[in-house]
Amino acid sequence: MVTLPVTLPITLDRSLPGSLGGQLSGRVRDLLVDGTLARGDRLPSSRALAGELGVSRSVTEQAYEQLLAEGWLEARRGSGTYVAATGAARAAVPTRVGARATPALVRLDAGTPWIDPRHGAGWRRAWREVSTARPPRGYDDPRGLPELRALLADRLARTRGLAVDPDEVVVTNGTTDGLRHLLTVLPPGPVALEDPGYRAAVETVRGLGRPVRDLPALAPVTDLRGAVAAYVTPAHQHPLGRVLPGPERVALLAAAGAAEAVVVEDDYDSEFRYDVAPVPALASLDRGRVAYLGTAAKSVAPSLRLGWLVPPPALLDRINDRRVVTHEGAAWPVQRAFLALLRDGYVDQVVRSARRVYAERAPRVAAALAPYAEPAGPVAGMYSTWLLPEPDALRAQEAARRAGFGVALLSGYCRSSGLTGLVVGFGGVSDEELDRALAALVSGLG
Ligand SMILES: Cc1ncc(COP(=O)(O)O)c(C=O)c1O
Q: Hey, which of 246, 343, 349, 421 would disulfide with 388, CB 3.0 to 4.6 Å?
């Protein structure tokens, strides 16, 4: 039986950066991923496709060769090029962006930091130390390693204006793990979270079976009645970037006091201010009302899965008592390595280097996008958020995707707020990638 070639619904855009062959292989890959092309489909010959697209045959040959090498396509002698019949092609899809699987996009993630490779020796030294240290015999201290908690307490006082005893610090597996430990000891009831806001926190709250209440991220919080907790990012509202102004901090604490609710302060990236000194932690205003959450995700690496929680003193014992029974502490090797990284100044070094890089990149992002979009907040951290009508944001996102970059839509962070635009991370990419991604975004907006 002769299989006729399919028609590929593809057009190429010569104004985009990158080779036409790369663009074409990306478009065909998308059709494979979203199921438009199915196993066994026959593709047009490279000559026919070149004619249809108005490009030279070397462009279509390059694209087919790439997809053959990736296992998506197979060449059948004397018959043509087909969508591969083996399972290899679909298994090769590594990432999911939004609802749709997309192969190997370089993601401009808001949460990915830049780590200076020049600090690699410090990193290796810390792990060598772990390899020669003896693990504790049992589950050890449920609050976390005492030496690590002492270093964290010292750092909180030094960098966040937060005076705490090491025994008030609980080492966690990251921000949402700390949130979970806290919520587990709170009475039943809804949790108020910023909208737009941190999706992982929303999912954690829902996962614990608690209703989510929306707190408009840009409005003062004056009423928390009925909520058991309010989750906020006062140093750098995620993802709009605003610093919670002093009077609104006072109002928030008053509202929490009146409702007997706990304020959960997610202090994820406060160290990355490069215009002014970091704003002191909200918890420094009222230790009895605020649970403080810190993370190693921005200063060292998200994949470390390490964080710390300073609960209000009244909740500390209940949290630790549970942990004695459940053994839900952070893994000893990770704690032990982080202890060495903190003690030897590695964390301070990487934070200083990264701050310099962000201070240079943030204005580059702003210079590229400001002609088309309005910044949602001040320049800080490792991402910036840009307000745009949704169709413009979608066009820019699509142009970036075609150039190989994943950029998040602001609408993805919204529940009831209708804000639209783009959230552009600039930490986890190289300078060259950032330039290409910005050029692609601008090509989609221009
Ligand atoms: C608002 C916010 N909080 C916290 C974190 C870090 O979470 P974790 O400590 O669980 O890695 C992130 C990471 O992207 C974030 O965006």
A: 421
Instruction: Provide DSSP, 149-164.
Output: HHHHHHHHHHHH----
**Distance from Cα 27 to the centre of ligand 1, integer Å:** 33
Contacts of 2 (CB under 8 A, 6+ apart): none
Quote the pLDDT of residue 88.
40
Which of 197, 427, 151 shows the shortest CA–CA distance to 294?
151
pLDDT tens-digit series, residues 350-401? 999 999 999 999 999 999 999 999 999 988 899 999 999 999 999 999 999 9
Q: How far apart are CA 212 and CA 348, in angstroms?
A: 36
Residues 6+ apart with CB under 8 A from 371: none
Exposed, middle or buried: residue 217 (CB in 10 Å: 0-12, 13-18, 19+)? buried
Q: Which atom of ligand 1 has the smallest separation from the CA of 238?
A: 1
> Considering just the CA atoms, what is the radius of gyration of the chain in Å?
25
- Measured in residues, the chain has a length of 446
Domain spans, the chain:
20-92, 119-347, 348-445
**Ligand 1 pocket: which of 152, 193, 266 to mutate (most atoms within 8 A of CB):** 266
Token pair in block for residue 255: 């509202």
pLDDT recorded at residue 273: 86
Locate the ligand 1 atom nearest the alpha carbon of residue 111 and give its number: 14
Spatial separation of the C-alpha atoms in residues 53 and 89, rounded to whole Å: 25
Architecture of the domain delimited by 20-92:
Orthogonal Bundle (1.10)
* Contact between residue 385 and residue 422 where contact means Cβ atoms under 8 Å apart: yes
pTM exceeds cut of 0.85: no
Ligand 1 in reach of 198 Cβ (< 6 A): yes
Asked if residue 175 has its Cβ within 6 Å of ligand 1, the reply is yes
Among 176, 177, 198, 267, say which to mutate for ligand 1: greatest number of ligand atoms within 8 Å of CB.
198
Please state whether beta strands 290-295 and 307-310 pair in parallel, antiparallel, or not at all (unpaired).
antiparallel
* CATH class name, domain 119-347: alpha beta
What confidence tens digit (pLDDT) does each residue in 5-26 have? 888 988 888 888 888 998 998 8
Q: 262: pLDDT confidence band, cut at 50, 70 and 90?
A: very high
Among the atoms of ligand 1, which is closest to the Cα of residue 266? 3
CB of residue 180 inside a 6 A radius of ligand 1? no
pLDDT at 98: 45
Q: Can you tell me which atom of ligand 1 is nearest the CA of 239?
A: 1
Q: What are phi and psi of 171, to 5 degrees?
A: -80, 135
Fold designation for 348-445: Aspartate Aminotransferase, domain 1 (3.90.1150)
The rounded distance, in Å, linking the Cα atoms of 153 and 309 is 11
